[in-house]
Hints:
With 328 residues, this protein is of the alpha/beta class. It has 2 domains: 35-105; 115-327, 3-Layer(aba) Sandwich (Rossmann fold), CATH 3.40.50. 46% of the residues lie in helices and 18% in strands. The protein has helices at residues 2-36, 40-53, 59-71, 76-81, 90-104, 109-113, 134-146, 164-172, 185-197, 244-247, 263-275, 290-301; strands at 115-118, 121-124, 153-158, 176-182, 204-208, 224-229, 276-285, 307-314, 320-327. Helix 9 (185-197) links the parallel strand 4 and strand 5 (204-208). Helix 2 (40-53) packs antiparallel against helix 3. The longest helix is centred in the N-terminal third of the chain and has 35 residues, at 2-36.
Amino acid sequence: MKMFITRSIPRLLKNSASVNALSRQNFCAEALNTATVPTVRTVKDKWISRFQTENIPEADASITNILAHVLKVQCLSDVNERHQETKLSEDQLAKIDELCECRLARMPIQYIIHEWEFRDLTLKMVPPVFIPRPETEELIELILQQIDAQKEMKFLEIGCGTGAISLSILKHAPQASAVALDQSTLACELTMENAKNHGLVDNLRIFRHKLVDKLPTELESHKFDMIVSNPPYVPSRQLLALEPEIKVYEDLRALDGGPDGLTVVKAILDIAGKHLEPSGVLWLEVDSSHPPLIEKYLEEAVPELGLKFMSSYKDMFRKERFVEIMKV
């Protein structure tokens, strides 16, 4: 019995040592693997550094939006507050790298993730359809402050793009009905898709129409309580100075306002004179140099349109950006 114990002890110790060594080896391997699995924090830091090195604008916002998209996180703040230490899978890392390479090519983040928040709408984005800007959200606020959302109203949007303006108004004015125009077939299709996604199709009609000085034949006799437009207003000579995100990827037809930036604006004024109801209102988003030019044009060049310049309003950058005009 003693011999059995005496002989067994070394064997047991040897086996125990082997098990312990194997356990330590497995533990170390597991710890090593865990340490090398990229987290949201490490990936974000890596791409911020890369974007900054490549002079990509808004480096932090760019990677945060991409991470939120890949993680399927609705609130951007959650990327930083709740997911900093979240480990990323190989598939997620590959997708992040793919999207970040697009950003390195100066593709707008809205086109990269194929959607964007506009007020309380999530809109699908497709290049080269014009991307709605934050300033346009301010235009919507101005309009909603002026209208009675519970009354019936017919309005026309000229140059609907993604549908941001029409859909925002329809969502908050359920008694309204809208007609939206755009010269781009893709823009018209995108507006309809976004309308379907938000259940706003019933009160919306969409026409593909290149604006000159008249509306489509089907609308020749129509009158509207309101017309709204964020038209092309960038003077042609300034297009080449725009950021690559804009001049390379967006539809320049949605930006080019002609020599003085007022070519399309004047066509819209002509339509407003013909198709606004008495006391109807035209809202425009324009270049900050345009409000006094528009006021002078209405008073001196085309008084027969019966349009009165009411006011201009500043945007968040303190620039005169929005114009209110009434049919008298």
